[in-house]
Amino acid sequence: MNSFVAVIAIIIAYFCGTLPVAILIAKSKGIDITTIGSGNPGASNVARALGTKYGVLVFVGDALKGALPVLAVLSHRPIAYVCATAAVFGHVFPVTRKFKGGKGVATGAGSLLPLHPFLLIGSALVWLLVTKLTKKASIASIVIVPMLITAFVMSGTPTWEVLSLVVIGALVEIRHASNIKRLLSGTEPPVTGSTV
User: Fold this and answer.
1) Which end of the chain, C or N, has fewer beta carbons within 10 A?
2) Residue 7 to residue 133: CA distance in whole angstroms
3) Has residue 194 been placed in a domain?
4) d(CA 93, CA 70)
């Protein structure tokens, strides 16, 4: 892949990440999701506001924002990782919304799924289990990042790929700073319906 095509792929990945799936779905139901609950335009907040079905729909949509750009360049693995990072960055810091985006969990998971399907499917099951047990998606999201990095290392993933995951994971963890504060103060809201 030549440099020009790679740059275009990365830019497209970023703008895929900026697509406000949660906002659009909530708006279709007459709700501004940025003014409800945590104000986060993501699956968990939509699940609290509209129910589990819509939360799952947002999660899938956000995951596709990450998966599709990566799939398009999957044969060029280093570029695929850059596209994965760009998609998450677009979701977290969308230029179309003054850089105020979501947490990046679903988009990050989606972007890594084509690269490491078995590890991501396993991580998704752990995420669902932790969310079900704690009733808080934020706890599952915060915990899953170091678990996934550990799984990458233990599975013999090349160091440069692990470092790429660390960058994506850092974006996700930084965006959960407010959740960590609420968890420590006991004010973090639960997810309605224990499956999202």
Assistant:
1) N
2) 42
3) no
4) 19
Structural domain containing residue 25 = 3-185
The domain tally of the chain equals 1
Is the residue at 190 inside a domain?
no
The dihedral formed by the CA atoms of 146, 147, 148 and 150, expressed in degrees to the nearest 10: 80
Q: What is the pLDDT of residues 75-133, one digit of tens each?
A: 999 999 999 999 999 999 999 999 989 899 999 999 999 999 999 999 989 988 998 89
How many residues are recorded in the chain? 196
Q: Decide: 56 and 68 in contact? Cβ < 8 Å.
A: no
Note every long-range contact of 158-162, with CB atoms under 8 Å and residues 24 or more positions apart, other chains counting. Answer: 160/78, 161/77, 161/81, 161/115
Q: How many CA atoms lie within 13 A of 93 on its CB side?
A: 8
Judged by DSSP in three states, 107 sits in: helix
